[in-house]
Description:
Blueprint: E1 17-20, E2 23-26, H1 60-80, H2 86-103, E3 105-106, H3 113-124, E4 136-141, E5 147-150, E6 153-157, H4 158-163, H5 167-182, H6 185-200, H7 202-215, H8 221-237, H9 244-253, H10 261-266, H11 272-287
Parallel strand pairs: 4-6
Antiparallel strand pairs: 1-2, 3-4, 5-6
Amino acid sequence: MMINGSHISKFLFLGLSLVVGCSKTQTTDSANGIADSKVNFTVCDPKDYKFECLKDDKTATSDGLLDLFGGVKDAVVEAAAKPVSDARQDEYGEGSRREIEQKYKVIADHSDHDMLQGIMLKLLKQREKATKIDYNIYVVHAQEVNAFTVGGEIYVTDALLQSAESKDELACVIGHEIGHNELGHIAKQLKATELAQGILGDEAGADVANFIGLLTIGFNQRSEAEADLYGIDLALSAGYDACRGIDFWKRMERMEGEANDLDNFMRSHPYSSKRANCYRSHIADFHHYTCKN
Length: 293
């Protein structure tokens, strides 16, 4: 992610099996929630993801600009930069760990670490066309409700653990971070940095890449939404109730101001209300399930 902000009716079985989108379903509804919905959840092809859920009348102008300029930036980096291997991403994650540990206190013996590790391993088993990236997960002390990843190293703040109300919510969060790696978002950042370093030298290139990153921070919103959708797929496929992720983003929404074009253009992440909307529409459109929350 980063996840920072600035968060079934009576069972009726008709016996008719449908195959639409990426999950197999029956025309059923379960009063006991998604676990009893009789839907065979699978991981969708990210190429098919839809992002209309990010559109909002209050941010229509900035939404269009972010789509346009974000696409141009990605095309330039993809055309000019060298490919980044999974091994290089692992090196990046390991090399960044010392810097992370200087900023955050890693809580090695946190009581929830084994639970997080178990969720992460369960989610990793659901991947299609999996990378060879080596994943690790850590709990760090911070006031922010946040999670982030650097080359397969996933960090979850203890504030997020206190805020989360279920393993289902945590599965969505961890799945999101896995998504950033599996979908090539971390590789894209590395490509941009290494491209600038190749032109300007290591130190100046890194500074320029960081500066450009700040200027184009809003362009990351589509990647954040894409990681959300991928995390939903992993969570559902692993047996977690991804509808609970909507509850998480509803709580996060209470900490945000009203949406507007200027703020939207400068945000690294979509508004929480948009993310909740993307959860709801993706689960309905791709997994044939209507979240009731």
